[in-house]
Amino acid sequence: MKLKHWKFALLLSALIFPAVSCEKTQEAAGEGQTAGVRKIVIGYDNTRPTSFIGDDGELTGVDIEALRLIDELLPEYEFEYQRSDQTGTFAALQSGRINVATTNSFWTQDRANRYLFPKENLGMNIEGLYIHKKFTGINNLEDAAAKKLRIVPVVSGDGNHGILLEFNKSHPDTPIDIPLTDNLDVWTVGFSWIAEGRYDYAIGPKQQYEAVVGNEDAQLHHLVNDVGFVEFGSVRTWPIFRKDEQELADAYDRAVIKLKEDGTLRRLALEFIGYDTWAYEGDNVY
């Protein structure tokens, strides 16, 4: 059975932060600008393959290179980049110190209430189960829930948490017991917990599995015989704007449409991820 189509679109995701005043945002990011060109500060976290420091010491990644091309298409803006962890990036967005956050984020209603989502997504993630290979016949969340498999603790409030909450709403007879955590290290240590048998599975993007386990040079590649990946859908990913940045978001949308139409975003996905994630923007998208 296919999962229902949800509008949840993440990473790995931000915690809830208090609102700030309009007066504070006016004094923050983007106000120091040269004549005719507005500086835009984009916060990012260091996560392969979306935004990371390459072997040459320079910032790169599929999202970063896409944003640089968007910058070229928007002469009225000049983008600069500020690194933090994911939590710090969203805190900076909430406080007005940056204009945009790019952290391979999914759409959630809570985020949509707090921030501004553009119309056009910047990327696609293939979503699936990170699951111990001793389990066979498990192809999706319905199968894992029916078998009452134990899920690795989920980062509270992130996009994967939202997917699971929506699943439980749609499957009241077979809900998933969702243990929560604020520890972002769970994204890595969870694979070891699955291999050890402490938990049975987790959910997340294919590229995360490959970066941590699947690739031959991955940190936990020795777990590849125990922990596998089972695809069950795809998730749109987004840069997230401050609420007062509608004009910037509209300009971003116009530029992204061009990069989608000319195949640039597909080319970047092939270069940095190794396959065309945009081919999955069809059925079973969250």
Task: List descriptors.
single chain, 286 residues, alpha/beta, D-Maltodextrin-Binding Protein, domain 2, 2 domains, six-stranded mixed beta sheet, two-stranded antiparallel ribbon, 10 helices, 10 strands, disordered N terminus
Distance between the termini: 15 Å
Radius of gyration: 19 Å
Strand order of the largest sheet: 4-1-5-10-6-9
Count of folded domains: 2
Number of helices: 10
CATH architecture of the largest domain, by name, is: 3-Layer(aba) Sandwich
Uncertain segments:
1-28
Question: How are helices and strands ordered from N to C?
Answer: HEEEHEHEHEHEHEHEHEHH
> How many β-strands, per DSSP?
10
On the 0 to 100 scale, the average pLDDT is 87
User: Can you summarize the main beta sheet?
Assistant: 6 strands, mixed
The shape, in one word, is globular
In terms of structural class, how would the helical and strand content be classed? alpha/beta
- CATH-defined fold name of the largest domain: D-Maltodextrin-Binding Protein, domain 2
Produce the secondary structure layout.
Blueprint: H1 22-26, E1 38-44, E2 52-53, E3 59-60, H2 62-73, E4 77-83, H3 86-95, E5 100-105, H4 109-114, E6 123-132, H5 141-146, E7 154-155, H6 159-170, E8 180-181, H7 186-196, E9 201-205, H8 206-214, E10 227-241, H9 246-261, H10 264-272
Parallel strand pairs: 1-4, 1-5, 7-8
Antiparallel strand pairs: 2-3, 5-10, 6-9, 6-10
